[in-house]
Amino acid sequence: MSAGPDPGWVAARRGAAARALRRAVSATGLSRHRAGFGWTVVPAPGSILASARVASWDPEPDYFHHWTRDAAIALAAIPEAMAAEPGAAGFWRQAVADHVRFSLAISDPDRRGPPVNPLKDSATGAFRPYLRPDAELAALTGPAWLAEPRCAADGGPDLERWGRPQYDGPALRAAALMRLGAAMPEARGEKADRLIARDLDFTLSVAGQPCLGPWEEEPARRSGFTLIAQWDALELGARRLGRADLAGAAETVADLIAEAADPVTGGWRESLEATPGGLDSATVLALVQAGRSDGPFALTAPRTRATMAALETLFAGLYPLNQGRAAPALGRWAGDVFCGGNPWFPVTLGFAEAHYRIAAATGEAAEFDRAEALMAVVEDLAPEGDDLPEQADRETGAPTSCLGLTWSAAAFLMAAAARDQALAAR
């Protein structure tokens, strides 16, 4: 049996993660002034910051934006945040209602982007190359808003150059709201139904098309992460709404995913365009978000487990900090160079969640032990305080890149909940 995390640490960190998540949601008391752009942003109610930290790529990245993908992942963790912090239940109920209104506003098809970037006159010379082109902003209307990976935290359009289009966010948001509706009335009703329908119709229109994946790296391709997110939303929507068009599209996307079967590892390749053996941890994170218990995309499915095993073997040998560990800190993919190419807390926690859920479903002691060992890695690398970073340095394990990532907080809450499930099953 592998040594697991200290139970007291898990309990304390669970509360810390709930507080960290709450600070990023409807953070109307914060203000972000980007001096180089002459741009001040105050988050709107319902927005969810990818990070509440104020940074300017110096070297910590500036994540003070609302990413649709990250926000959907945070939404999925809200029941666990409420369980960890019962006194904040009222906050979360209001936050979900506000988030639905905010999301409807930023995706309003009748809205039009500005004809000229409003920061043109205020940006300094060093920052002008990072301004989003006028033509891109002027073209924003109709469904184009749903292909935006992020917006300003006040609900305005993203005024900086960034990787576009991205199609995973609306699918993840629709799936999160459909699941959340079972537990929270604020995720049901006319407004929520309208948002879900808008997200599903957009997903239906772009399903299977190339776009930038969750790591926002060129070139556009049909990534496993995006395809799985689209399949999950379409299949859930078909069941909820009884729409044959959604059911047919879900089957078509499932057939596309099947083309990513990897002959080298027996798992799933990063994308349909990836070469044999080309894996990415994002594929596993998408399967964890979908959380299916049967079928080819279940967590217990042979290709899911083969993908996990191959990636864990890869990262065990790739990062110096993994020497001598019972389980490795996990990164995104073998050739990752962002901020030095390091282990990511959301990835390591996502794999821990997957192993816990497999253990709960199968009763396999080895799966539980593996999950415990991964959580022990997080315990070892996590800094003091409420915030969990994005990454840990591949050699020293020191926190690096964003030092307080909302996705990391959500991932911890989900992994801790999966641990509870696995312990109960034992």
From TrEMBL:
Catalytic activity of the protein: Hydrolysis of terminal (1->4)-linked alpha-D-glucose residues successively from non-reducing ends of the chains with release of beta-D-glucose
PANTHER family: GLUCOAMYLASE, INTRACELLULAR SPORULATION-SPECIFIC (PTHR31616:SF9), TREHALASE (PTHR31616)
A Pfam family assignment: Glyco_hydro_15
Limits of the GH15-like domain: 160-416
Name under which the protein is recorded: glucan 1,4-alpha-glucosidase
Listed InterPro entries: 6-hairpin_glycosidase_sf, 6hp_glycosidase-like_sf, GH15-like, Glucoamylase
Keywords: Carbohydrate metabolism, Glycosidase, Hydrolase, Polysaccharide degradation
Family statement drawn from the similarity comment of this UniProt entry: Belongs to the glycosyl hydrolase 15 family.
GO MF: glucan 1,4-alpha-glucosidase activity
Enzyme class: hydrolase
Enzyme Commission number(s) from the entry: 3.2.1.3
High-level lineage: Bacteria, Pseudomonadati, Pseudomonadota, Alphaproteobacteria, Rhodobacterales
Biological processes, Gene Ontology terms: polysaccharide catabolic process
Domain of life, source organism: Bacteria
